[in-house]
Amino acid sequence: MSGSPRAALYSPAMLALAVELADFPFDPAAPLQGQARSRTCGSTIALSADCDSEARLFGIGMRVSACAVGQASAAIFAREAREMGIGEVGSVLHELGSWLEGKAPSSILPRLELLEPARPHKGRHEAILLPWRAALDALSKAESAR
Asked: What is the pTM of this model?
């Protein structure tokens, strides 16, 4: 079965990323809260975070109900989005969309190449984008509260 698409998709490296989410527990008392849901697979992410006076993310936590691809993407997000503001998060989200379409290299984020096996699976694309969308939801609430 090692030649099957499932075996190639769920690599040990991707599964190891998913385990990293334990380092980012959701905090229901955090001042920033955001959510995103995939229309294609039903995966969800609830994001909690704090922000500084310039609305940059700190103290990221997540509650993730997603496949290993979505969990791995959330782990990459949690490590890389610290100190990003709404503009940076939106820019990365746009670049990820281009990467998923094959128009950008995986070097836009550290460890993104570990999600490369998921790129041909269009049904997984929204799961990859979920943490970034949840962050935009949270940050847009912070912006409107200013």
From this structure: 0.90
59 sits in the region (left: phi over 0; alpha: psi -120 to 50; else beta) called left
Domain map (residue ranges) of the chain: 5-145
* Residues 33 and 48 sit within 8 Å (Cβ to Cβ): yes
Q: 5-145 in CATH: which number?
A: 3.90.1010.10
Q: In what order do the strands lie in the sheet with 44-51?
A: 32-37, 44-51, 57-65
d(CA 143, CA 130): 20
Neighbour-count burial for 13-43, b at 16+ CB within 10 Å, e otherwise = ebeebbebbeebebbeebebbbebbbeebeb
- Give tens-digit pLDDT for 89-134: 999 999 999 999 999 999 999 999 999 999 999 999 999 999 999 9
